[in-house]
């Protein structure tokens, strides 16, 4: 046996080295193509789960992408020219555990969850064809005369304001009159120093479209323990839930603005709603938090996905609420809420079905079981 035998099909070491370098170059180019594809996805207001991203990549590049998946995402976290919110997404939504789960299990949508969401979309598409939907769009279109800066001014003066107009507009365009004790709000106006406007709640007259009146509709054989348990579990996730008086068309909101340092997020729910309505709205707002729409927290208990469009975040959060409610026998008006956000009668590609299902499953568990308190990084270190 001579010294050249280990080279097998190669006649010289130089040829072996050349082929090895060529193969390495091709692998590097392949990895670079994958990396650029991921960057393009992130810049298109898409923030999929790790499983969905892997699925996209496999469709584009084939199964060999799995060999590069973890390394590419790890490298992207260290990219100096990548925006901070995208890095947060890579560290939280595409964390090491999520990558491992995607490589191990892939996407596992149960037929039960998937069919529930499909049914919601069908109902929403059907509602878009209805007379009620047309009247609602016609009604909201009349409020487009006010500049974004004035919208901000109104929100500062009355955060729960749903619609506003001048006294003259309410009378002539909407056939409603301003109540005697109405509280005016100030906006800036062309050719005038300021102009007074009034919230919808401060008017009376011609009825508004049904779509707006039924935004918080929730009916069924409701167990109050669901609301009690999910509130307690939310507190264990350091999410503060408050009940306050809001506008008649404002069910609630989630925010990072807090005065109490014990909490990470705050949710405000309309105090005049029934318990079953409060529960459905609370699911929607918790959906926003656990889907990462408000950003992550220092302990990374939920992801950071703040680069999504308004339509995408509302569709995701309402789908979460709808899925949980349907599974617990609660009927809502989600199809009417979503109808406005569905473009071309389909769900936008930026919506993560994978994360919707995972968050819905989590919130269902938070409604039916009392879960142990979460531990932050410092608490874990101490224990």
Explained architecture:
It is a single chain. The protein is mainly alpha-helical. The chain has helices at residues 13-42, 50-61, 66-77, 84-92, 96-105, 111-128, 131-141, 148-157, 167-173, 210-213, 224-236, 275-290, 310-327, 334-339, 353-368, 377-382; strands at residues 164-165, 176-178, 185-189, 192-199, 203-205, 218-220, 239-244, 252-255, 265-270, 330-332. The chain has a 3-stranded antiparallel β-sheet. Strands 7-9-8 form a 3-stranded mixed β-sheet. It has a two-stranded antiparallel sheet with strand order 2-5. The longest helix is centred in the first third of the chain and has 30 residues, at 13-42. It is globular, with a radius of gyration of 26 Å. The N and C termini lie far apart (63 Å). The mean pLDDT is 87.
Summarize the structure in short:
The protein has 383 residues and is mainly alpha-helical.
Structural key phrases:
383 residues, 3-stranded antiparallel β-sheet, 3-stranded mixed β-sheet, mainly alpha, 16 helices, single chain
N- to C-terminal separation?
63 Å
Mean pLDDT across residues: 87
Strand content: 5-15%
Low-confidence spans: none
**Biggest β-sheet strands, sense, barrel:** 3 strands, antiparallel
DSSP helix fraction = 40-55%
How many strand elements?
10
Q: Give the helix tally.
A: 16
State the strand order across the main sheet: 1-4-3
Shape: globular
Q: Radius of gyration from the CA trace? A: 26 Å
Order of helices and strands: HHHHHHHHEHEEEEHEHEEEHHEHHH
Summing up helix and strand content along with how strands pair, one would put the structural category as: mainly alpha
């Amino acid at each position: 046996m001579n010294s050249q035998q280990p080279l097998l099909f190669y006649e010289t070491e130089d040829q072996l080295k050349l082929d090895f370098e060529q193969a390495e170059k091709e692998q590097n180019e392949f990895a670079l193509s994958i990396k650029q594809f991921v960057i393009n996805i992130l810049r298109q207001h898409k923030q999929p789960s790790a499983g969905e991203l892997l699925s996209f990549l496999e469709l584009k590049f084939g199964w060999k992408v799995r060999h590069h998946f973890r390394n590419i995402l790890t490298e992207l976290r260290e990219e100096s020219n990548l925006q901070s919110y995208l890095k947060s997404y890579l560290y939280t939504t595409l964390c090491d555990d999520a990558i491992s789960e995607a490589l191990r299990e892939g996407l596992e949508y149960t037929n039960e969850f998937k069919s529930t969401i499909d049914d919601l979309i069908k109902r929403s598409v059907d509602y878009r064809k209805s007379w009620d939907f047309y009247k609602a769009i016609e009604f909201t279109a009349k409020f487009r005369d006010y500049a974004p800066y004035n919208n901000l001014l109104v929100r500062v003066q009355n955060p729960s304001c749903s619609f506003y107009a001048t006294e003259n507009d309410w009378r002539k365009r909407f056939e409603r009159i301003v109540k005697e004790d109405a509280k005016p709000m100030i906006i800036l106006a062309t050719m005038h120093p300021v102009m007074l406007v009034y919230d919808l709640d401060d008017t009376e007259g011609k009825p508004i479209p049904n779509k707006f009146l039924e935004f918080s509709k929730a009916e069924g054989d409701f167990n109050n323990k669901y609301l009690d348990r999910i509130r307690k579990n939310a507190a264990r996730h350091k999410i503060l839930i408050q009940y306050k008086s809001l506008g008649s068309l404002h069910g609630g909101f989630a925010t990072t603005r807090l005065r109490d340092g014990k909490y990470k997020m705050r949710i405000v729910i309309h105090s005049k709603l029934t318990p079953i309505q409060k529960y459905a709205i609370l699911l929607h707002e918790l959906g926003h938090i656990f889907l990462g729409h408000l950003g992550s927290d220092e302990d990374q208990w939920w992801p950071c996905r703040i680069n999504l469009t308004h339509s995408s975040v509302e569709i995701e959060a309402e789908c979460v609420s709808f899925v949980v409610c349907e599974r617990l026998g609660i009927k809502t008006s989600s199809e009417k809420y979503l109808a406005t956000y569905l473009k071309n009668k389909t769900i936008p590609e930026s919506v993560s079905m994978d994360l919707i299902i995972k968050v819905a499953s989590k919130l269902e568990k938070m409604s039916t079981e009392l879960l142990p308190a979460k531990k932050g990084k410092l608490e874990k270190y101490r224990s």
